[in-house]
Design a protein that fits this description.
Number of domains: 1
CATH superfamily: Aldolase class I
Mean pLDDT: 88
Number of helices: 12
CATH topology: TIM Barrel
Helix content: 25-40%
Low-confidence stretches: none
CATH architecture: Alpha-Beta Barrel
Order of helices and strands: EEEHEHHEHEHHEEEHEHEHEHHH
Strand content: 15-25%
Oligomer: single chain
Largest sheet: 8 strands, parallel, barrel
Number of strands: 12
Shape: globular
Length: 289
């Protein structure tokens, strides 16, 4: 957490086809609804940014979120980061033209690190986010994976983060695959290692199940922002604030049950998160009323 900088609360929307989905360890994806409906509600609640990730982009070797991005950009006016299947400079141009403000690269950056330097030179460092999907190894090291944690790369995360910064990236999106979707909390050790090693912002992602988890990864691990999915999505569903519209494809059983909860995850909203952080002396864009 950089001194004097507000912490950002970023809803993460994982997309499969036309639907918002959520899983555990980025697997077992369940349909939750229309991503545009969720995005609009998060914007109205005070989200600082939005993160869209095409979680099946690797199957088609392309990002297919252009229509969703375009529709969303017409109704919300906060930065949007888009990731998944973005392989080339032309892909980046296409996503930015559709309405994104930043792109998140993973596979392309690991296969060709020079794309980071090229993209930063053309579009500016602030436009280039590098996504790191990390899995902790038995010896305590963290290795980077691609394809939603399925493809082993052998790349050590700490060295990779330093290289990312040296090549000109503006931000790191750091996801713990081990914690993702579990509600057990962020991987504070992982986040602390990376945040201490680089000077660019680190967005912690994967695992929060209660408000304390968000505070801890900021206060103890020095995250500059948090990307949150389950806690926010399930709250909207549980409160009946998200549209029930969705395309009839994928695993829709959870949505049909309308339980709005899951395991160790406590439902919450952006206002409650920011109020909690404000009361615990964490700077954030929050109006105390």
């Amino acid at each position: 957490m950089k001194k004097g900088v507000n912490i950002r609360i970023i809803p993460r929307l994982d997309i499969k086809g036309p639907n918002l989905v959520k899983g555990i360890h980025l697997e077992g994806l369940r349909v939750l609804g229309k991503p545009e409906d969720f995005a609009k509600r998060y914007y109205e609640m005070g989200a600082d940014e939005l993160l869209y990730v095409d979680v099946v982009a690797s199957l088609y070797n392309r990002n297919s979120l252009h229509d969703i991005i375009s529709r969303t950009a017409k109704e919300i006016f906060i930065p949007m980061t888009v990731g998944g299947g973005i392989r080339t400079i032309d892909d980046i141009k296409s996503v930015l033209r559709a309405g994104a403000d930043k792109v998140a690269l993973n596979t392309a950056a690991i296969k060709n690190p020079e794309i980071i330097r090229e993209a930063a030179t053309i579009f500016g460092s602030s436009t280039v986010t590098i996504a790191i999907e990390a899995i902790k190894q038995p010896n305590g090291d963290y290795l980077a994976y691609t394809d939603n944690g399925r493809e082993f790369t052998g790349v050590e995360v700490l060295d990779w983060a330093k290289k990312i910064e040296s090549l000109g990236a503006g931000e790191i999106l750091l996801t713990s695959i081990d914690r993702e979707g579990t509600g057990l909390g962020f991987d504070k050790e992982l986040t602390k290692r990376i945040a201490a090693a680089v000077s660019i912002p680190v967005v912690a992602c994967g695992g929060p199940g209660k408000l304390e988890h968000i505070y801890e990864v900021i206060h103890e691990s020095q995250a500059d922002a948090v990307a949150i999915a389950s806690m926010l999505h399930y709250d909207l569903i549980g409160q009946g604030n998200a549209s029930a519209k969705y395309e009839g494809e994928g695993n829709t059983e959870f949505l049909k049950k309308k339980t709005g909860t899951f395991g160790k995850i406590t439902n919450t909203n952006i206002s409650a998160i920011k109020k909690y952080l404000f009361e615990h002396d964490i700077p954030c864009r929050y109006r105390n009323e």
